[in-house]
Amino acid sequence: MSEVDVPVLSPEALERIETAERVALAHYDRERAPFFPNNPAFSFVPDDIIKARATTIDYIRQYAQAIAGAHIGEYAVGGTPALDKEAARRISDRIQTLTDTLWFGYNTALFTAPSYWRYAVFATERPATIPDGHEWSEVWRSLTTTGGPFEQLRHSYQRAICEVVDGIYERVAPTPVSAADRISK
User: Whole-angstrom Cα distance, residue 166 to residue 171?
Assistant: First the structure.
């Protein structure tokens, strides 16, 4: 099998991966709910926002690990934990896509939350304080400045996902080196 060939997964294996991804997402949604801006108990105080955002990074990391485990279990070569390079790339690309969707989705939900809560006429519960447009603009600016808390959180998020992806690449089976390759070096 060459480096560009990836083991073809059976329909059953693909279904197991899809199920594992749905279960992992449901777990993430349950765990992060108290820290998500659409929760009536959410606090728009900057320190609370930073803590909530930091907590969600851990839940996204757990989600990424669950996805990696599901894929590795199906792609593993011959029952060993070793992976082909192309399978590792596909798994890591999938994890990046799924986790970036959660990361950027949270940022979007947070940015729009005060407007949502101000105009959610059917909401029976609301956060204790909802910043007005100008106040929220100032809070958002303070959080997103260069070198500010959100930049630091973005770096934490990237480190967490890189650790998961690194774990995938650690499982790549060493490529056998032919005698001709050894001689030419």
Answer: 9
Determine the residue type at 1. M
- CA–CA separation, 152 vs 23, rounded Å? 29
Mean pLDDT by 10 residues, the chain (185 residues): 61 93 97 92 93 97 96 75 82 96 95 84 70 89 93 96 93 63 48
Q: How many CA atoms lie within 13 A of 164 on its CB side?
A: 29
To 10 degrees, the CA torsion angle through 153, 60, 68, 66?
Answer: 150
Report CA torsion sign: 57, 60, 61, 62. Answer: positive
